[in-house]
């Protein structure tokens, strides 16, 4: 068999595998890894200082040191990172805006990733669009890389 044909077949298989993986994972919300994760046992809460509310550390909003610190929603905030030439970002903006209009207490904040690189690095944003669902205190509940559907956003908000 021709070596060029073998290389072509390997590349086609790899591209199809990558495409399938992206199709399955794009826009899916994943739970945030935080000490406030649901289901923690009383022993874990005691170790984290959460058993005694007076000793528990006060949560600090992800947006505390930014221009959006006063724009948090009463119940949740949809924080979107996008860039100028990102086509899925426009669809995500529309979906998140619609959800923020129909769900009381939810706000939508869009951040231009290119203009706010320090925040992008701090939050570990790897691609646009990335949507982070924040609770009322500004703490991350879940995030999705890629364009989520309206149903995925509403399900993620239910967790917040």
Task: Describe this structure as you would to a colleague.
Residues 34-44 have low confidence and may be disordered. The chain is elongated, with a radius of gyration of 19 Å. The chain has a domain at 71-160: Glutaredoxin. With 160 residues, the chain is of the alpha+beta class. The termini are far apart. The chain has 5 helices and 5 strands, in the order H-E-H-E-H-E-H-E-E-H.
Strand order within the widest beta sheet: 1-5-4-2-3
Task: Supply Rg.
Answer: 19 Å
Strand content: 15-25%
Low-confidence stretches: 34-44
Query: Structural class of the secondary elements?
Result: alpha+beta
Count of helix runs: 5
Sketch the major β-sheet.
Answer: 5 strands, mixed
Q: Give the overall shape, derived from the CA principal axes.
A: elongated
Secondary structure tally: strands: 5
- CATH architecture group name of the domain at 71-160: 3-Layer(aba) Sandwich
Key traits:
160 residues, alpha+beta, Glutaredoxin, 5-stranded mixed sheet, elongated
How is the topology of this model organized?
Blueprint: H1 3-25, E1 30-31, H2 42-47, E2 76-82, H3 87-102, E3 106-112, H4 117-123, E4 130-135, E5 140-145, H5 150-159
Give a concise summary:
The chain has helices spanning 3-25, 42-47, 87-102, 117-123, 150-159; strands spanning 30-31, 76-82, 106-112, 130-135, 140-145. The protein is α+β, with helices and mostly antiparallel strands. The model is unreliable at 34-44 (pLDDT under 50).
């Amino acid at each position: 068999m021709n070596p060029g044909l073998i290389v072509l077949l390997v590349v086609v298989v790899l591209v199809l595998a990558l495409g399938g993986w992206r199709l399955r994972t794009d826009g899916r919300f994943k739970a945030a890894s935080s000490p406030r994760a649901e289901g923690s046992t009383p022993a874990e809460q005691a170790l984290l200082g959460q058993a005694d509310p007076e000793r528990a550390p006060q949560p600090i909003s992800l947006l505390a040191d930014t221009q959006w610190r006063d724009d948090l929603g009463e119940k949740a905030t949809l924080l979107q990172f996008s860039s100028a030439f990102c086509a899925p970002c426009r669809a995500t903006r529309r979906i998140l805006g619609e959800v923020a209009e129909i769900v009381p207490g939810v706000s939508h904040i869009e951040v231009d990733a290119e203009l706010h690189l320090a925040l992008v690095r701090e939050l570990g944003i790897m691609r646009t669009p990335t949507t982070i669902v924040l609770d009322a205190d500004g703490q991350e509940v879940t995030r999705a890389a890629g364009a989520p559907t309206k149903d995925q956003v509403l399900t993620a908000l239910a967790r917040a």
